[in-house]
Amino acid sequence: MSGTHIPAIKENPMSQNRLTHLIAAGAVSLAGLGAALAIPVVSASAATTNPININAKCSGTSVANLQVQREDTGKLSVDFGVDMARHAAGVRWGVGATDNGTLFVLQMVKTISDGSFSVTKVITPKPGVNTIVATAGNPVTHETCTVWGSL
Tens of pLDDT along 101-116? Predict the structure, then answer.
């Protein structure tokens, strides 16, 4: 079929990182909350050296985001945040994050004026695949957010 032009297909950025969205019911007990809550989960289906950027719907109306990238130093830069649907400053959230099961964040944070918060840490990666799991919980509304990915 000479002369036939097949247009290039633009690949969805999510599939470039082989990301798979998975909504699941689970139970999590975040230190400081002391309650088991149902959580949605978003995961990276396979380890990758490409940066991770995952958005996930939380159990309520908020949206969570996890970004992980390897720095020039070899360390991992991990940024986890939540954006609430309503713009309310001072809303408390408990935040926890692990790398291959080792806790590297456990703190309470408050939203800024636009109803969001972000926690950024630079960590030394574990040998092999690093699976980062970040969780946030609102102790008043019991809304939870969990996002995970592997790099």
Answer: 999 999 999 999 999 9
Separation CA 110–CA 141 (nearest Å):
14
Give the residue extent of every domain in the chain.
16-150
Strand partners, 136: 95, 145
Q: Which residues pair with 137 in a beta bridge?
A: 94, 144
- The set of residues, in sequence order, having a beta carbon less than 8 Å from that of 48 and lying 6+ positions away, is 17, 18, 150, 151
Q: What is the 3-state secondary structure (H, E, C) of the chain?
A: CCCCCCCCCCCCHHHHCCEEEECCCCCECCCCCCCCECCCEEEECCCCCCCEEEEEECCCCCEEEEEEEECCCCCEEEEEEEECCCCCCCCEEEEEEEECCEEEEEEEEECCCCCEEEEEEEECCCCCCCEEEEEEECCCCCCEEEEEEEC
Q: What is the pLDDT of residues 73-104, one digit of tens each?
A: 999 999 999 999 989 999 999 999 999 999 99
Report the pLDDT value the prediction gives residue 29, as an integer from 0 to 100: 31
CATH T-level assignment (fold) for domain 16-150: Immunoglobulin-like (2.60.40)
